[in-house]
Amino acid sequence: MKAVKFGGTSMSTADSILSVKQIIESDAERRFIVVSAPGKANGEDKVTDMLVAVAGERPNLRAGKFAPVCARFEKICDGVGLGASFLKEDLSAIEKMLQDASRDYIVSRGEYLCAKILAALLGYEFVDAAKLIKFSGNTYDDGYTESVCALGLSRCRAAVIPGFYGSNGNGDIVTFSRGGSDISGAIVARAVGAGLYENFTDVDGFMTCDPRTVPHASVIDILTYNELRELAYMGANVLHPESIFPVRKANIPIHILNTFNPSASGTKIVPTEEFLSGKYERTKKMPITAIAGRQHFFSLHIDKSMMNSEVGFVRRVLSCFERLGIAIEHIPSGIDSMTVVFSAVDQKTVNALIKAVQDEVKPDHISLTTDVALIAIVGHGMKSRPGTAARAINRLSTAGINLRMIDQGASEINIILGVSDDDFERALVALNGEFEV
Ligand code: ASP
After folding, report:
1. What are residue 150's phi and psi, to 5 degrees?
2. Does ligand 1 have an atom closer than 6 angstroms to the CB of 46?
3. Which of 46, 106, 114, 165 gets mutated to test ligand 1 (max ligand atoms within 8 A of its CB)?
4. H helices of 215-333, where?
5. CA-CA distance, 214 to 210, in Å (whole number)?
6. pLDDT band at 324 (very low <50, low <70, confident <90, very high)
7. If you placed Cys at 186, which of 64, 71, 246, 433 could pair as Cys (CB 3.0 to 4.6 Å)?
8. How far is residue 199's CA from residue 196's CA, in Å, rounded to a whole number?
9. Which spans in 253-384 are helix H?
10. Distance from Cα 37 to the centre of ligand 1, integer Å
11. 0.85 exceeded by the pTM?
12. CA atoms of 2 and 22, how far apart (whole Å)
């Protein structure tokens, strides 16, 4: 049996919802469905963005801002054949609540209403995510959710569940971060013991590289959980980065598919161990699975003679970042120097950071570079295979690109290269040329 999630674009118009219905009905295994709120369509905004604007209004003005949301749902209901007034009671109940409702309650209503429509169209049960997905305060509670969700769905043969939110012990609605319906889908997949979590979106799958920079990039047919984490870190945003965790616990593969091209084979994300033991075969057998990158990092370079013999030096440097709430990405180091790479922050924070590090470890020299781009070369195929880093470095040097940093984790699943923001796109193209991913 399959748990299936449909994203906002899939649910954006009456026509796309009818395609979703067809997709579900074409496979009797598709029994537990999670939906996003309608996305952008025909010049109209994402419903979630419209609701964010409603929640941001003064309480007495919210009803006015909610009117276009009602109109959008009425049009969808009419278009799918349920009749424009199908959600009348729900819409007026929400409208009555608007003045006193929390932000999360308001923002989550797109998913709630969308799930009601699809449940009616399919003749599946509607089950409110508030009953299945549990938060403790504002923090998602996975242990509690695991049992509540499994129990809540155990008596259903088939159900539609709104994505993106759950509730806490006070009965308040709490949302995940944006794009969080992917997490809801993964939670439901685990709860019902699905053999597969299908995630329908509006692209054919994960690409070997960003097609805007490398036009011949192709769809990756098989990706492991670990490779996915590396790519998600580098900004590949096909799937919410946290959605992997519930399914990973239960070894359930995720299949990324395209609602608007349902016959495309998509990307299957599979348990790493199973892939390494040979259970899945990639069509393209390359040492490198994908190359991805992000711009706009900073790096703080600290020099101090004999720093390696000063016990606690690195900890003291890092404590400065911690005190200022700056997350660290990488720490390449030498004998008398260390570099800390982190996401760009404002000038005031930079000044405070430099001052804190100077006071804390009294470096001989400290400098900041503000235009760092990181590129990850990702793939299990490079493990125990000499030469990948050498080829990358050579290729960059032949292309006249200065390499500012290189970092490889002990798991040998990725090599991170640092170049300047200006060299970023050229470096991506050069590395693709080298590894032909
Ligand atoms: N509708 C929400 C958003 O736009 C959640 C989701 O689509 O996953 O972020």
Report:
1. -60, -45
2. yes
3. 46
4. 225-233, 244-250, 272-276, 313-323
5. 6
6. very high
7. 246
8. 10
9. 272-276, 313-323, 347-361
10. 6
11. yes
12. 16
